[in-house]
Design brief:
Helix content: 55-70%
Order of helices and strands: HHHHHHHHH
Number of domains: 1
Number of strands: 0
Largest sheet: none
Distance between the termini: 14 Å
CATH architecture: Up-down Bundle
Structural class: mainly alpha
Number of helices: 9
Length: 232
Protein backbone atom coordinates (compact mmCIF):
# COMPACT_ATOMS: atom_id res chain seq x y z
CA UNK A 1 0.00 0.00 0.00
CA UNK A 2 1.39 3.40 -0.98
CA UNK A 3 1.60 5.73 1.94
CA UNK A 4 0.72 9.42 2.12
CA UNK A 5 3.97 11.01 3.26
CA UNK A 6 2.43 14.42 3.90
CA UNK A 7 1.72 13.28 7.49
CA UNK A 8 5.29 12.17 8.19
CA UNK A 9 7.31 14.23 10.62
CA UNK A 10 10.46 15.70 9.00
CA UNK A 11 12.69 13.92 11.52
CA UNK A 12 11.21 10.57 10.45
CA UNK A 13 12.55 10.87 6.95
CA UNK A 14 15.80 12.63 7.92
CA UNK A 15 15.68 14.54 4.61
CA UNK A 16 16.36 11.34 2.62
CA UNK A 17 12.91 11.40 1.01
CA UNK A 18 10.55 14.31 0.54
CA UNK A 19 7.22 15.47 -0.82
CA UNK A 20 6.61 17.55 -3.93
CA UNK A 21 5.92 20.65 -1.87
CA UNK A 22 9.01 20.68 0.30
CA UNK A 23 12.25 22.61 0.74
CA UNK A 24 14.49 19.80 -0.58
CA UNK A 25 12.39 19.59 -3.76
CA UNK A 26 12.52 23.34 -4.29
CA UNK A 27 16.27 23.51 -3.56
CA UNK A 28 17.19 20.63 -5.88
CA UNK A 29 14.95 21.97 -8.64
CA UNK A 30 16.47 25.46 -8.38
CA UNK A 31 20.03 24.08 -8.41
CA UNK A 32 19.24 21.85 -11.40
CA UNK A 33 17.69 24.71 -13.36
CA UNK A 34 20.60 27.01 -12.48
CA UNK A 35 23.16 24.41 -13.58
CA UNK A 36 21.25 23.81 -16.81
CA UNK A 37 21.11 27.55 -17.51
CA UNK A 38 24.85 27.97 -16.87
CA UNK A 39 25.70 25.04 -19.14
CA UNK A 40 23.37 26.25 -21.90
CA UNK A 41 24.83 29.75 -21.77
CA UNK A 42 28.42 28.47 -21.98
CA UNK A 43 29.36 30.14 -18.71
CA UNK A 44 31.03 26.98 -17.42
CA UNK A 45 32.83 26.10 -20.66
CA UNK A 46 36.35 27.17 -19.66
CA UNK A 47 36.12 25.60 -16.20
CA UNK A 48 34.85 22.34 -17.67
CA UNK A 49 37.54 22.27 -20.34
CA UNK A 50 40.23 22.87 -17.72
CA UNK A 51 38.87 19.98 -15.66
CA UNK A 52 38.82 17.72 -18.72
CA UNK A 53 42.44 18.60 -19.51
CA UNK A 54 43.42 17.83 -15.92
CA UNK A 55 41.63 14.47 -16.13
CA UNK A 56 43.43 13.61 -19.34
CA UNK A 57 46.75 14.41 -17.70
CA UNK A 58 45.93 12.24 -14.67
CA UNK A 59 44.94 9.18 -16.71
CA UNK A 60 47.70 6.73 -17.57
CA UNK A 61 49.84 7.43 -14.53
CA UNK A 62 48.53 4.45 -12.58
CA UNK A 63 47.10 1.33 -14.17
CA UNK A 64 45.33 0.43 -10.91
CA UNK A 65 43.58 3.81 -10.75
CA UNK A 66 42.66 3.67 -14.44
CA UNK A 67 41.08 0.23 -14.13
CA UNK A 68 39.34 1.12 -10.87
CA UNK A 69 37.81 4.22 -12.43
CA UNK A 70 36.68 2.24 -15.46
CA UNK A 71 35.13 -0.44 -13.24
CA UNK A 72 33.32 2.18 -11.16
CA UNK A 73 31.97 3.99 -14.20
CA UNK A 74 30.56 0.75 -15.64
CA UNK A 75 28.48 0.13 -12.51
CA UNK A 76 26.35 3.09 -13.59
CA UNK A 77 25.19 1.23 -16.69
CA UNK A 78 21.43 0.83 -16.71
CA UNK A 79 21.58 -2.93 -17.35
CA UNK A 80 23.39 -3.72 -14.10
CA UNK A 81 21.17 -1.39 -12.12
CA UNK A 82 17.98 -2.83 -13.55
CA UNK A 83 19.11 -6.35 -12.64
CA UNK A 84 19.83 -5.24 -9.07
CA UNK A 85 16.51 -3.45 -8.81
CA UNK A 86 14.67 -6.44 -10.26
CA UNK A 87 16.20 -8.75 -7.65
CA UNK A 88 15.04 -6.45 -4.86
CA UNK A 89 11.61 -6.28 -6.48
CA UNK A 90 11.28 -10.07 -6.49
CA UNK A 91 12.18 -10.47 -2.81
CA UNK A 92 9.10 -9.74 -0.73
CA UNK A 93 10.98 -8.02 2.11
CA UNK A 94 12.71 -5.56 -0.23
CA UNK A 95 9.94 -5.22 -2.81
CA UNK A 96 9.13 -1.60 -2.01
CA UNK A 97 12.81 -0.64 -2.22
CA UNK A 98 13.13 -2.41 -5.57
CA UNK A 99 10.00 -0.65 -6.82
CA UNK A 100 11.41 2.74 -5.81
CA UNK A 101 14.69 1.98 -7.57
CA UNK A 102 13.05 0.72 -10.77
CA UNK A 103 10.62 3.63 -11.06
CA UNK A 104 13.34 6.16 -10.31
CA UNK A 105 15.74 4.58 -12.82
CA UNK A 106 13.15 4.72 -15.61
CA UNK A 107 12.21 8.33 -14.89
CA UNK A 108 15.83 9.47 -14.47
CA UNK A 109 16.97 7.74 -17.67
CA UNK A 110 14.12 9.18 -19.73
CA UNK A 111 14.64 12.64 -18.21
CA UNK A 112 18.37 12.65 -18.93
CA UNK A 113 17.74 11.35 -22.45
CA UNK A 114 15.33 14.12 -23.36
CA UNK A 115 17.49 16.73 -21.62
CA UNK A 116 20.44 15.69 -23.78
CA UNK A 117 18.29 16.28 -26.86
CA UNK A 118 17.31 19.73 -25.62
CA UNK A 119 20.76 20.93 -24.51
CA UNK A 120 22.75 19.20 -27.29
CA UNK A 121 26.08 19.60 -25.54
CA UNK A 122 28.98 17.65 -27.00
CA UNK A 123 31.10 15.38 -24.87
CA UNK A 124 34.73 16.29 -24.09
CA UNK A 125 36.77 16.11 -27.27
CA UNK A 126 39.93 14.87 -25.57
CA UNK A 127 41.16 11.30 -25.92
CA UNK A 128 41.27 9.11 -22.83
CA UNK A 129 44.89 7.97 -22.41
CA UNK A 130 44.44 5.53 -19.52
CA UNK A 131 44.11 1.75 -19.37
CA UNK A 132 40.69 0.18 -19.87
CA UNK A 133 38.98 -3.09 -19.09
CA UNK A 134 38.39 -5.50 -22.02
CA UNK A 135 34.73 -4.49 -22.38
CA UNK A 136 35.55 -0.89 -23.23
CA UNK A 137 33.99 2.29 -21.88
CA UNK A 138 30.21 2.20 -22.25
CA UNK A 139 28.05 4.97 -23.69
CA UNK A 140 25.87 6.99 -21.36
CA UNK A 141 22.27 7.14 -22.55
CA UNK A 142 20.98 5.32 -25.58
CA UNK A 143 19.86 7.40 -28.55
CA UNK A 144 16.21 6.44 -28.27
CA UNK A 145 15.10 10.02 -27.89
CA UNK A 146 16.83 11.92 -30.66
CA UNK A 147 19.52 11.53 -33.31
CA UNK A 148 23.01 11.78 -31.88
CA UNK A 149 22.00 10.92 -28.33
CA UNK A 150 25.24 8.98 -27.84
CA UNK A 151 27.30 12.12 -28.35
CA UNK A 152 25.23 14.33 -26.03
CA UNK A 153 26.80 15.14 -22.69
CA UNK A 154 24.48 17.06 -20.34
CA UNK A 155 23.24 15.75 -17.98
CA UNK A 156 25.06 12.52 -17.14
CA UNK A 157 22.80 9.47 -17.09
CA UNK A 158 25.35 7.45 -15.11
CA UNK A 159 25.51 10.14 -12.42
CA UNK A 160 21.71 10.38 -12.27
CA UNK A 161 21.29 6.62 -11.87
CA UNK A 162 24.06 6.42 -9.25
CA UNK A 163 22.32 9.18 -7.29
CA UNK A 164 19.09 7.15 -7.46
CA UNK A 165 20.85 4.16 -5.92
CA UNK A 166 22.62 6.17 -3.25
CA UNK A 167 19.51 7.98 -2.09
CA UNK A 168 17.00 5.10 -2.19
CA UNK A 169 19.32 2.61 -0.51
CA UNK A 170 20.45 5.23 1.99
CA UNK A 171 16.84 6.07 2.86
CA UNK A 172 15.98 2.39 3.22
CA UNK A 173 18.94 1.68 5.51
CA UNK A 174 18.75 4.84 7.62
CA UNK A 175 16.35 3.41 10.23
CA UNK A 176 18.92 0.67 10.94
CA UNK A 177 22.27 2.29 10.23
CA UNK A 178 21.56 5.87 11.20
CA UNK A 179 24.14 8.42 10.07
CA UNK A 180 26.33 5.64 8.66
CA UNK A 181 23.85 5.29 5.78
CA UNK A 182 25.09 8.62 4.44
CA UNK A 183 28.24 6.79 3.34
CA UNK A 184 26.13 5.41 0.48
CA UNK A 185 26.28 8.88 -1.07
CA UNK A 186 29.95 8.16 -1.75
CA UNK A 187 28.79 5.89 -4.55
CA UNK A 188 27.28 8.63 -6.77
CA UNK A 189 30.31 10.80 -5.95
CA UNK A 190 32.67 8.05 -7.16
CA UNK A 191 30.64 7.37 -10.31
CA UNK A 192 30.57 11.09 -11.10
CA UNK A 193 34.32 11.38 -10.60
CA UNK A 194 34.88 8.33 -12.79
CA UNK A 195 32.81 9.79 -15.65
CA UNK A 196 35.01 12.88 -15.65
CA UNK A 197 38.17 10.78 -15.31
CA UNK A 198 37.41 8.65 -18.38
CA UNK A 199 36.50 11.82 -20.31
CA UNK A 200 32.88 10.90 -20.93
CA UNK A 201 31.60 14.01 -19.17
CA UNK A 202 32.45 17.44 -17.85
CA UNK A 203 32.04 18.20 -14.12
CA UNK A 204 28.88 20.22 -14.77
CA UNK A 205 27.40 17.22 -16.61
CA UNK A 206 27.72 14.95 -13.60
CA UNK A 207 26.52 17.73 -11.29
CA UNK A 208 23.37 18.10 -13.36
CA UNK A 209 22.86 14.35 -13.48
CA UNK A 210 23.34 13.99 -9.73
CA UNK A 211 20.86 16.76 -8.95
CA UNK A 212 18.30 15.23 -11.29
CA UNK A 213 18.79 11.75 -9.81
CA UNK A 214 18.47 13.01 -6.24
CA UNK A 215 15.32 14.94 -7.10
CA UNK A 216 13.62 12.00 -8.79
CA UNK A 217 14.68 9.42 -6.19
CA UNK A 218 13.78 11.65 -3.26
CA UNK A 219 10.27 12.21 -4.58
CA UNK A 220 9.69 8.54 -5.40
CA UNK A 221 11.13 7.39 -2.05
CA UNK A 222 8.91 9.88 -0.29
CA UNK A 223 5.84 8.73 -2.19
CA UNK A 224 6.52 5.09 -1.32
CA UNK A 225 7.49 5.81 2.29
CA UNK A 226 11.04 4.52 1.93
CA UNK A 227 13.05 5.21 5.09
CA UNK A 228 10.17 6.39 7.24
CA UNK A 229 9.84 5.17 10.81
CA UNK A 230 6.43 3.72 9.98
CA UNK A 231 7.94 1.87 7.00
CA UNK A 232 10.45 -0.13 9.03
Amino acid sequence: MIKNTSSLHPSDMQNWAFAVRSRPTALLAILLLATTALVSSGALFHLDEAAASAAQGAAGRSTAVDLAMHAITETGDIYYMFVFGAVLLIIRRTRRIGLAIMISLVIATIATGYSKCAIERERPGLEYMGETLPLGIGADTYSLFCEGGYAASFPSGHAARAAVFGLVLGAALFPRLGAASYLLLLYPALVSASRVYVLQHYPSDVLGGTLLGLLVAGLIAGRLGIGSVEGR
